[in-house]
């Protein structure tokens, strides 16, 4: 990732540390590290960890064999490689020093945290999530631009899927097709492609499998990838042959709920109110108990991040927040319907990152 | 994953808990959970956690919307779904109860561990790795069979790559080609494909990028995926046009080191001795300081797991242990060479899971 002002982001992190009276921020795998340094750690057993003191130099502790991957950024951090027979926990502990208050990145493996707690027995550890969430929550214009490009690539794929033959192919084959289409249409790295056909559509996080898609199947396709590090995530509905009146009814309810959720987005509205707006439509239609998940999740460098669009989250939306609106109705043993767009809160309301048609697409 | 005796594995886990005087094992994302239950948790922000008491019933705490993914196994665990507005930490804490000694899975997010430590302030937490390592270290015959099948699929791809045109294509294109070939030749899910050309080959964990491969490039291709949940991982060398005498010399040294490492594998030999056997060959040839990583890593459900083939690891090998032998020489600014097979320790010595030719493959 280039084009971002990492030094400015690091300064913001330090100001947050000072405000929270925290001495040091420890960041390992996940999206906080690339957000702050441009470098993504490999999610493996060799520890990579940025030690970011409130006052003083940031040090990126990195396995020696991965040091050539790191793009040097002398104004943001220095690199400290460790060899295969060294102990990276001891190196980090020495950099932290005694008796500190430390925040540690969300996705850091628990085994590393336990080892650091043992090595730094007088240090108090807390989750860095409140801090990193606050840094990453409002997207810069360049970040929104990448979300827009990621969304446009996914929309292109949604359009191309209408020309695919579904009947006779397995969910897994279709899932791989979606991945290949993403990577040949502007997405850097395909991330995931849920293809849930017929009764499998009633499982929101269905793992695409050997089920052969056939005539009369409704198919949920929920997919995304990354452009410049930023995620896409959209869900569209396909149907082999003409859907039943019952399918059409459910689809219309979900689409109305999704539109209602999007229409409710504006600065000052709470995350919970967006969930409530979408849910009310489904409840009014009598399907409330079949909408078994929250309405959405934030998105950015992570596919799921703050803000979560869920009952109880009273956070007011602000311009630059990016999140999904994805209500669904799941009828066990029958089918499921979900429709999902990414939206960004704007001064006036919202901008959709996804523009492909939301009606059910009839396929062969 | 089917065909494994999960009840027997759970019994072994409980015996290990008793021997270590640990009250409860907590397992979340990563490979320990599918090893014990057949179920793989989604690596997302909604907590999935198996609570495995030394005495008593195992409970799989799982997000409600993912409960339909879980294959019920009444003799192994029961399912406790949690709804979107419930607190999964409180649910797990109630299942654990007060004042316990708990072990927690390696890859569990640090934020979940910190929340559990806060909710269970009288409980002592330790890393589950010594326990889960001991469970997973010796592969059952059915596990070795899956490693064999995964290796055979990767070998097929290594053979097919010889017919590809390299010159004029980017590393990223070639990396995607490797992934597609894996999935069309017996691998369930492509995992990774490092394609490091020319001077990029000197970076062992190079991220395939926009570099266009050209005449005279040596190319390291290190790739793998999963079959039935078990990983493949092999590295072969390609070269556009005839290599230089210097390239041939380095390749021969690496191949001799890799053969020496494999030849040293037998029950009772230490992991460190395998590393030493391979390293001695490279050192004797005068390239010791260019072999900047350990000789190998264990493999199974995880791409990297115990045993690590590294100086200092005095663990004696036993039949059923599976690991890579992958020495390399990395010449900054010039090229790199790495050759990698997966081997399984047998009663007599070892069995290679990879059989594709290890000479440099000349391509266009």
Topology of helices and strands:
2 copies of one chain form a homodimer.
Chain A: H1 6-19, E1 24-27, H2 32-37, E2 49-53, E3 59-63, E4 78-82, H3 88-96, E5 101-104, H4 110-119, E6 124-127, H5 129-136, H6 141-161, H7 171-183, E7 189-197, E8 218-227, E9 230-231, E10 234-240, H8 245-263, H9 271-284, E11 296-298, E12 305-309, E13 322-325, E14 328-331, E15 335-338, E16 341-345, E17 350-352, E18 361-363
Parallel strand pairs in A: 1-5, 3-4, 5-6, 10-18
Antiparallel strand pairs in A: 1-2, 2-3, 7-8, 8-9, 8-10, 11-12, 13-16, 14-15, 16-17
Helix pairs in contact in A: 3-4, 8-9
In short, what is this structure?
The structure is a homodimer of 364-residue chains. Chain A has 364 residues and is of the alpha+beta class. Helix content of chain A is 31%, strand content 24%.
């Amino acid at each position: 990732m280039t084009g971002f002002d990492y030094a400015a982001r690091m300064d913001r992190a330090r100001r947050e540390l000072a405000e929270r009276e925290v001495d040091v921020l420890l960041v390992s795998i996940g999206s906080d590290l690339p957000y702050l340094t441009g470098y993504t750690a490999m999610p493996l057993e060799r520890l990579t960890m940025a030690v970011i003191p409130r006052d003083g130099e940031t040090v990126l502790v990195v396995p020696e064999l991965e040091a050539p991957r790191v793009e040097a950024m002398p104004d943001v951090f220095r690199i400290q490689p460790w060899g295969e027979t060294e102990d990276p926990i001891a190196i980090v502990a020495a950099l932290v020093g005694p008796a500190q208050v430390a925040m540690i990145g969300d996705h850091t493996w628990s085994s590393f945290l336990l080892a650091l707690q043992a090595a730094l027995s007088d240090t108090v550890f807390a989750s860095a999530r409140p801090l990193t969430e606050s840094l990453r929550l409002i997207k810069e214009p360049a970040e929104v631009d990448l979300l827009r490009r990621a969304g446009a690539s996914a929309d292109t794929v949604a359009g191309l899927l209408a020309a695919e033959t579904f009947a006779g192919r397995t969910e897994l084959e279709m899932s791989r097709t979606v991945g290949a289409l993403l990577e040949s249409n502007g997405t850097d790295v395909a991330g995931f492609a849920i293809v849930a056909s017929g009764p499998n559509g009633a499982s929101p996080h269905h793992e695409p499998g050997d089920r052969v898609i056939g005539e009369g199947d409704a198919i949920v396709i929920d997919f995304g990838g990354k452009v410049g590090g930023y995620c896409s995530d959209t869900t569209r509905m396909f149907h082999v042959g003409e859907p039943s009146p019952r399918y059409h009814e459910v689809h219309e309810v979900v689409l109305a709920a999704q539109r209602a959720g999007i229409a409710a987005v504006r600065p000052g509205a709470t995350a919970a109110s967006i969930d409530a707006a979408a849910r009310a439509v489904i409840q009014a239609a009598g399907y409330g108990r079949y909408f078994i998940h929250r309405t959405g999740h934030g998105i950015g460098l992570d596919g799921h991040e703050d803000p979560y669009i869920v009952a109880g989250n009273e956070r007011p939306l602000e311009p630059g927040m990016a999140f999904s609106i994805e209500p669904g109705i799941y009828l066990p043993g029958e089918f499921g319907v979900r429709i999902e767009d990414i939206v960004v809160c704007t001064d006036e309301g919202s901008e959709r990152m996804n523009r492909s048609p939301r009606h059910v697409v009839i396929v062969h």
